[in-house]
Design brief:
The complex is a heterodimer. Chain A is α/β, with parallel strands linked by helices. Chain A contains nine helices and ten strands. Chain A has two domains: 167 residues, 3-Layer(aba) Sandwich (Rossmann fold), CATH 3.40.50; 67 residues, no CATH class. In chain A, the strands form two sheets. Chain A has a six-stranded mixed sheet, with helices on both faces. In chain A, strand 7, helix 6 and strand 8 form a beta-alpha-beta unit. In chain A, helix 4 packs across helix 5. The relative contact order of chain A is 0.18. Chain B is mostly helical. Chain B is built from 16 helices and four strands. In chain B, helix 2 packs antiparallel against helix 8, helix 10 crosses helix 16 and helix 12 crosses helix 13. The chains are: A alpha/beta, B mainly alpha. Chains A and B meet through helix 2, strand 6, helix 3 and helix 5 of A and helix 1 and helix 9 of B.
Chain lengths: 242, 392
Amino acid sequence: MIIVDDLHKSFGEVKALRGVSFEARDGYVTGLLGPNGAGKSTALRVLYTVIRPDRGVATIDGVDVVTHALEARGRIGTLPHGAGLYPHLTARENIVYYARLYGMDCSLIDERVQDVIDQLDINDFADRRSKGFSQGQRTKVALARALVHGPQNIILDEPSNGLDVMAIRSLRELIKTLKASGKCVLFSSHVMQEVSALCDEIVIIAEGRVALHDSPDGIRNRTGCDDLEEAFVKAISHVGAY
Amino acid sequence: MLPVRAVFQKEVFDNFRDRRTLMSALVMGPIFGPILFAFVINLSLKQSMTDVTVALDVPVIGQEHAPNLIEFLGSRNLNVVDAPADRAAALAAVKSGLHELVVVIPENFGEDLRDMVPATVEVISDQADSQAERDARRTLRALRAYNQQIASLRLTARGVSPGVMRPLNIDVVDVSTPSGRSAMLLGMLSYFFIFALLTGGMNLAIDATAGERERGSLEPLLCLPVTRDQLIYGKILAACVFMSISLALSLTAFNITLKFVPLEELGMTPNFGPLEVVIAFFLLVPFTLLGAALMTLVASFTKSYKEAQTWVSIVLLAPTLPILVASILMVRASSELMLIPSLSQHLLLVGLIKNEPLNMLDVSISVVSTLAAGVVLTMICARLYRREGLLV
C-alpha cells in the first residue's frame, strides 16, 4: 500500500512536483500516466527514497519514506528508469548481489534466486555474463533482482521502454500475476494502451500535479470521452478541471 | 550477510573479471614500472661509465706544431686523428655533430711555449651535448695534466721544487656506504611504488560513482535497504585490496629487476631483498586507504567515466609532489615530516634501502597519520555519496 500526500519538489527554478497526492492499493495495479516531464519519475524517485520531497508525506505500508527510508526501501522492489546491470557478472550473480544487499538469509538466497529466474523465464541466459544482453533480457534481469526479496510493493518506472512486443506481453503477464497474489503494483508510462490494458486505477499527472485519478471507466465518464487517449489529452490540457 | 561485506565481495569478484582493471592493477603499474626503471638506469649507467680504457678519437688541427703534446695525448689513450682543414671547418663540423670535439693548435704554439708565453690550445665542443661534454672533459683533463707536467719541469729546471705550486693537499674522504649511494638513485623507487599502488585502484574508484552512474546501475543500487555509507565503504575497501595487490606485485617485480641492473659497477649495493620487500609493503600499504578515498572523491565530482579518468590521472601525480620537493631539497627524515603522507613513506623507504635501522616512532607516526588522513577522506566521500545530486 503506497500513499502519497501533497508532494512538492523543486530542482532550482524548476518545480517538478506541485502537490501530488494519490494512493496505490494492495491487489491493484496503479498506472502513473503523463507526458514527458510531467513529474512521474520524480514522484517515483521520492517513493523509492532516492530524492527527498521539499514538502508532503509519502508512506509505504505506513512507513514514512523520509524518516524511515531504509525500512521503506526494504518493502519495495524497484525498477528505476533504464536500470543497468553489472556487465561482468552473470544474470544470476546480478540477482544474488541484490538478494544479499536486501539482507536475505544466505541459506535461502540460492533457492529464492532460482525461483525468480523461473518466474521471469530467464533460465536460458541466467548463467551468461550480462554484457551482451538485449534490452529485453536486461529488463527481465533487472525485474528479477527487484523481486528477489518478495516485496509487497513494486514500483516500475516506464518498464516497457525499449521492449519488443513479446517482451511487453510477458511483462504484462508478470504484472497480472503480481496483482493476483495481492501485491501493490505502481508503474509509470506514457503509452496509453499499456495503461488501459493493465491498470485498475490511473493517475494522470501533468505539470507536477494530479490531473485526474480514477478507474479507466471513471476517467471515460468524467471527461466524457469514450476513447482513453482522448480523455488523456483532455485531462492534461485542463489540469485542475476534474 | 553484512552489506559492506556483500558490496566488498561483489566489487572484488566483479573487477577480477574486468580486463581493464586487471591490466592497470596487475600489469601496467607493477610490471611496466620496474622494466622502465631498469631500462633507464641501464641506459644512464652505460652513458656515465665511458670506459677510460677505450681509446677516444680526438681530431686535432695543427698536429705538426706540437709533436710532444700529441705524443702525450697518445699516452693518455687519446687517439689523435686527422681533423677538418681549418678552424672554420672545425666549428661547422662540431655544430653539425660530425665531430664531438676538435682541438686546434695554432701555428705559434711551439714559439710561445719556448718563450714562456701561455700558449693557446682551443677545444671546440658543444657543451649542451652530454656525450660531447664528457669527451671534452676527458680531453681537457689530459691537456691540464700536460700543462702540469711542463710547469713542474720548468720549476725543476730552475731548482725549485714543484711542491711550491701545491700549497694544499686536498684529500676527500667519502663515508657513504655502497647502499647509501644507491639510495640517491633508488629514491625514485617510492614514486614508482606509489604510482603502481594508485593505478591498481583507479578503475574501482572511478566505478564507485561515475561508472555506476554511466551504466545506470547506481539508481537501483540506491533503492536497496542499505545506507549509502555502507556502499561507499565496501567499494573503497575493495579498491584497497586491488591497490595492495598492485603494490605487492610491483615490489616483487623491482626485487627481481634490480638483479639485472649492474648497480655494483657503480659501487652500489641496494638493500632490497625479500625481507625488505615485506617491510616496504607494510610501510606503504597504509597509503592505499588514502589513495582510494582521494581518487573516489575526485571521481565523484565528474560526469562521466572518461572525465573521471582524466581527473584521476592528474591525482596520480599529487602524491609525487612532496617526494619531488624532498628529493630536490635533499630533506632528511624527521619525525615532523612523518606527518606528511607519501613523503613519510618515501623517507622510510629510502632509509630502508640505505640499510639504516627503522625508527619505530617514525614508522608509527607515518602509519597513523596516513591512515587518519585516509579515514577523513573516506568520510568525506561518504558525505558526498549521500548527496541528492549524486544521480545526475
